[in-house]
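Thread: assembly with ligand

MN 10:42: here's the input set. Chains plus the small molecule as SMILES. Want everything predicted jointly, not piecewise.
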Amino acid sequence: MNSYPWPFKLIENYAKANNVPIPAGVENPDGAAICMAAEKVVRCSEGLIYYTGYSVPVIVALTVGLAMTFIATRTPFGRYVYAIGGNPEASELAGIDTKMMIVKVFALMGALVGISSIISSARLNAATNALGLFNELYVIAAAVIGGTSLAGGVGTIYGAMLGALLMQSIISGMSLLNLPTAYQSIVVGVVLVIAVWLDQLYSRRVN
Amino acid sequence: MANAAQKAHAAPESRGTPLIEMRDMSIAFGGIKAVDHATVDLYPGEVMGLLGHNGAGKSTLIKILSGAYRRDHGQIFINGEEVTINNPRDAKALGIETIYQTLALADNVDAAANLYLGRELKTRFGTLDDVAMEAECRKVMHRLNPNFRRFKEPVMKLSGGQRQSVAIARAIHFNARILIMDEPTAALGPQETAQVGELIKQLKAEGIGIFLISHDLHDVFDLADRLAVMKNGKVVGTAKTSDVDHDEVLGMIIAGKCPPGAIPGPGALSMAN
Ligand SMILES: Nc1ncnc2c1ncn2[C@@H]1O[C@H](COP(=O)(O)OP(=O)(O)OP(=O)(O)O)[C@@H](O)[C@H]1O
Ligand SMILES: [Mg+2]
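BT 11:07: finished. Tokens for the full assembly:
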């Protein structure tokens, strides 16, 4: 999951600092012993591999993604959501209780926001009333980048998740580059505008 | 229309209780009285043609019956019992199926999803049974439009006639007692139109009551047992198709003149003046 081998140089420095004997690596296929280095567990099969463990939020995100994909594609509820997005009047005439459906969609969104706020506050070990403020902008950008139409009725869960990955990569990357927050917001805004523009362009092409 | 024998199967002479009676219906949009004290009825196994100029209120009248609009005034009786229809679900529960003039399709999903929208087939786990729905969709579409192949496409990508076929399929698939067809053949080719004509005769023989809205007098005379003409929201008159001819009906539509063979309504010329 979030567990990946450390980059070679990093692990070498780590091993030296902690007096871990560096095994023969790939040349030594039998060296799959588990070495104790300081308090950390290190496996030494193909060189030194230091497992960083599982990241619970990633597991949660994947689980939610799978569950939501199931709901969106395999259940009547999901079908109605798409239908209402495509043509609300027709859905009502087809006998769907569109008002109730919209209430349910909002409730579902509330539940998902609840999950994300649990993760956020667990990560920060603190919660404020402004937790997640401006996230809605990122969320909209992520969904649109992932192919969700602002006009409604089109989009996938995995698309939105890929969009979120892209958005977060941009934001994290900018943080790593030490870009001032103001510029970060500008970039996010520009990305959002471009995504919406492409969405409009695409939906005009379709019709 | 091959089946001339079925045309002889007119509505029963001895009128019992009508399947549907819409009594004194009125609805206004702002200042426009779209339907103004209109009364129409429909017997089982009967095709009732609804005629009138553009904007006469035909679609609005049947949309009250199908639950799309709430009436301002009037009563609806089914088999003599008053019913309340507040939304499309109520109408469907009473066995009223509708083909809307605007088709009312969800454009972004495919034909099968539209066919079963609101009453999906489910597997025993409660999930959508897309395989079964598509198989059924193929069957019913074959009956209407044998050339139809594009089952996987969202209906947005279909032609006007193909979309109309999907809308017709949806209305006839669920054992309706009362079928409302608002210009069902407006976008259809000659072969498909003939097929819908055949279908109407079949459904009629099964005892289903049909409201047929059409601007095509030939179709109405060919398929309908009775007709009602509306003008500016009012019913000009009702007549058996055998008691009036084309010119008389044209006179009803255009001038609101009620011929001797017809029962005049509140919109008839003599009463309007
Ligand atoms: N939702 C609405 N809001 C406002 N006015 C409406 C609405 N629906 C219909 N009308 C008005 O009611 C009148 C009757 O319209 P309706 O659609 O019933 O006509 P129609 O007889 O079906 O005509 P056509 O033959 O063109 O289909 C028209 O004047 C129309 O402008
Ligand atoms: Mg109409």
